[in-house]
Amino acid sequence: MMPSARRLVTSLLFLMAASSAAPASEMPRIVHQQGRHALLVDGAPYLILGGQAHNSSNYPLALDKVFAAIGDMHANTLEIPVAWEQIEPVEGQFDFSYVDALLKQARQHQVRLVLLWFGTWKNTSPSYAPAWVKFDNARFPRMLDRQGKPNYCLSPHASSTLQADRKAFVRLMQHLKQVDSAERTVIMMQVENEVGTYGYARDYAPAAEQLFSGPVPAAVLAYKKPQQPQAPGATWRQAYGAYADEYFHAYAIASYIEEIAKAGRAVYDLPMYVNNAQRDSTESPLLPWHENFASGGPTYDVIDIYRAAAPHIAFAGPDIYDPDWNKFNASLQHFQRTDQPLMVPEMSNGANYVRYLWLVLGRGAIGVAPFGIDYAAYSNYPLGHKASDRSMVAPFGAIYAAFRPMQRQWARWAYEGRTYGVAEGDDRQPQNIAMQGWNASISFREWQFGEREYFKELKDHPAGTEIPNGGVAIAQTGDKEFIIIGQHARIKISHAQGQPSMWARVEQGHFDARGNWIMERNWNGDQTDYGLNLGATPVVLKVKLDTY
Ligand code: DGJ
């Protein structure tokens, strides 16, 4: 063969090999190891630094204000609704123009999407179902109360409603498969929104009554252990006593959601989850439902029932709208489990929630999303921030900006169990973190220089610490090495066995796009003599300690 012909064949072979080796972008999926979890996007762990749009921003002309806020927040992921009423306003006639506009803009802004399916239930109500569903009680029955009177909530026992919702959701997934398989802009689906029923423990319609007096499915008994061992065939009341009505309703809704998720994933296999309007996370003892939360929703006490009934749902996540530090911590403890990842699909965008990003991300969550990240002329104050402007997103944005360049590394460290986090408590007191061979103590409202006792006459505090807003997240990257990121906090690290130790190196810097560490400054002297003192602007430190 002539050398030039050989070259041509070689390059052709190279091109063919290159094109066959070019990986089709991988489906997002959730993986598990040793009771920890990661969301893989494009084949690698991904940290959702998210924001959720307002409820009514799911229309093309409303998106500019959403993406402007998401951009200012440095979020890498937008959570936004797709409503049943908008994709199937007339039965059987589907309209995906909003979904297409959304995908286009998300790609332009290099933001991934988590789509929220507002179908049969949105905050328990059928408000986002099409009119042909929500006003046809005969075909799409509402739940009945004990007197047989319909209430506001659609029944989870109606196969007609399930079929209609499932059909619309499947069409949505088919459409996503068609228009997004190559780019994978959509990385996850939330099925329904804050399901359950307010004011009613369960459906009392005849069909539901019959099921309630029948046996608890074996899968439920296996996951959600009754207080006393039960013979197969035990009824809900026999097995769960005063908790039976709530558990039965949870099972009914979880089973309904399972049918939707299963059918959707069969078409296009994205990870799917449910979110939860919480019950009091610190209630002790845990009492049976007494109109104090939405019965049947995936509250922490019934996660086992959801796991038993809905294997196509990867996890239930808490929506957190109580700024109390104890309750916030308790919620995370309830929802971070060896059998499901922690993700906070919603939390308030109020200033007193900013600190919780450190806690959630430090605990190894796969993601978090403050709610109402949107410059629409609407604010959900007093639940969230008063103003819909940059003052709302900027504090969250400062933290996301620091995390974002290393979100892939952080997600991997979290998957490996190397990460820790604290948020400043309402009591403003120091906190400790036990790491591998080392202990960190974190204190708040300190000046960057010196110890408090040196300056006893000084009563003031650093500007910007008027409310508890400090926090730290630490990844232990080696035996003696850490990545520390935080704000409004002082960190000291000591050897767990009490050996004398000192900072070996404290570099401030960032990771570049290739994952290389870029050092900007080497902290020593005043910057390390009194611990590592992090101010208002979050910084990333690469830290090494050693003993002597
Ligand atoms: C939680 C819901 O899931 C959101 O859609 C929204 O209604 C907030 N509550 C309140 O703003």
From TrEMBL:
Residues 1-24 form the signal peptide. Coiled coil: none annotated. Residues 73-213 form the Glycoside hydrolase family 42 N-terminal domain. Residues 397-534 form the DUF5597 domain. Keywords: Glycosidase, Hydrolase, Metal-binding, Signal, Zinc. InterPro entries: DUF5597, GH, Glyco_hydro_42, Glyco_hydro_42_N. PANTHER family: BETA-GALACTOSIDASE GANA, BETA-GALACTOSIDASE YESZ. This is Beta-galactosidase. It comes from Duganella qianjiadongensis.
